[in-house]
Amino acid sequence: MLNPPAILVIDDEQIIRDGCQRILSKDGIRVETASDGNTGLGALNEDNFQVVLLDLKMPGVSGMEVLNRIREINPEIIVIVITGYATVESAVEAMKEGAYDFISKPFTPDQLRSVVKRALEKIALEEEAKRLRRERERNLQDIANEKSRIKTIIHCMADGVIVTDRENKIVLINPAATRIFSIDDADLNGKILSSCVKDEKLNQLIEGFFIGECSYSAISQEIMVGRDKKIFLRAHAAPVKSEEGEILGSVIVFEDITYLKELDRMKSDFVSMVSHELRTPLTAVDQQLSVILEGITGEISEKQKEILCRAKARNKELMNMIKNLLDLSQIESGKIIQYKEPIDLNGLLSKIVSLMRSQALERGIILEFEPYDPLPLIDADVNNMEGVFTNLVNNAIRYTLQGGRVTIKSGVKGEYVKVEVIDTGIGIAQEDLPKIFDKFYRVKTAQTRNIMGSGLGLSIVKGIIEAHLGLIEVESELGKGTTFTVFLPIKS
Ligand code: ADP
User: Fold this and answer.
1) What would the pLDDT profile of 346-375 be if each residue is shown by its tens digit?
2) Which residue has a Cα nearest atom 25 of ligand 1?
3) What topology is assigned to 341-489 in CATH?
4) Which residues line ligand 1 (CB under 6 A)?
5) Overall pTM > 0.70
6) DSSP string, 134-159
7) What superfamily in CATH does domain 6-129 come from?
8) Fold assignment, 157-256
9) With 0-12 CB in 10 A as exposed, 13-18 as middle and 19+ as buried, what is 242?
10) In the prediction, which pLDDT does 381 show?
11) For ligand 1, atom 7, which residue shows the shortest CA distance?
12) Nearest atom in ligand 1 to 425's CA
């Protein structure tokens, strides 16, 4: 709206013109006047007015004609006609021609103010409506631009993207996804996700979003597709929720990780090949050192013996590390379990305890076993199980100071046989606990500096236990001790 609002009064009676000007100016309105139709139309052509107060009965050009001309000049100008008592009919006529309102002579200042106020309010409302309309159009344009931008981004993505509705029907699929799953997007309309992505586990997890079984906000799952050429994918799925938290559908992004898998396989093959090649010469060195140490090649001095013993110990460490690397590559290739049989863990544990007791005693540590009797059998590979518990007991002895105690306890928890290896040793700091099962991870403190190791033992232990569908947990307090608890499924 013009500021201040502008009104033109066209009337041949000076008293009306002056009266209107005086009354309305007081309300902050700019008021111009014209004494006949032609002068009024001239003023309208030169200046901007929002409201015209128009006398219908004037000499010269008639009020009705002026009204029609005003509508031609600018149909948005509001015209209020001024009539005498006897001319109400012509006022009605004028309103049919587009006048907004009328006021009859003689009128009071309040009547004038009220009719003008209504007119100005109507203009203000119309302008607000126009502004809102413009804003809406701009918003719609923004949404359209945003949509087209998102569409372009999704279409250009190298990763596959699928969006489903709440019935798990596909509503959007990008070219990368149609390529990965070899599907024609022409016949996709309304197809259910599981008919294109044939991975039972992933489909179950995604359906879990809809039936409220799945509390995750996102899931990540490896899947494999393709018959002739296998493609490994990592699927990242997340539910799409409304502001009220209602599930509207899901978005799944498929990342091709085939090359990573291939790299991993090549790395394992390489480690395995190198380890095999190293094992033979190292075994030969060990045997030859034994021959010299046993005096078969002639007498050796104490000094020579000491040096050779150290060389033999170092060689043994190397052989251990190679064995660990080989075990790890077997775990990673899923070939660690060679032969499963029913095992009584009590028997196996007491054998390990008696074999390691002298090592513990040498270090001034008490090693004891508290069997739970009768202990249910487990179905496992004996060599693997010997490896697991030897490793845990060996660690407990190595990381416990003289005068300490290592206790092995067997037991049952639910469907599992439970074995605890408890020590009163140096303990592990809370921040290190989540990392000790990582490959090559060793806690570095003044107390561990002189203890030899490769940091591979616990990752092998965990790998073997998980391959037997079991679980390993650790609890520890610095300076107080550590407890490793292994759970293995009872033989069905
Ligand atoms: P390492 O060959 O170094 O012993 P492991 O994988 O067996 O490798 O163990 C990883 C790390 O976990 C060790 O370096 C050690 O710091 C810590 N650790 C393992 N067992 C114990 C234990 N019983 N008490 C204290 N620390 C332990």
Assistant:
1) 999 999 999 999 999 999 999 999 999 999
2) 427
3) Heat Shock Protein 90 (3.30.565)
4) 395-396, 399, 423, 425-428, 436, 441-443, 448, 453-458, 482
5) no
6) HHHHHHHHHHHHHHHHHHHHHHH-SS
7) Response regulator (3.40.50.2300)
8) Beta-Lactamase (3.30.450)
9) exposed
10) 92
11) 457
12) 24
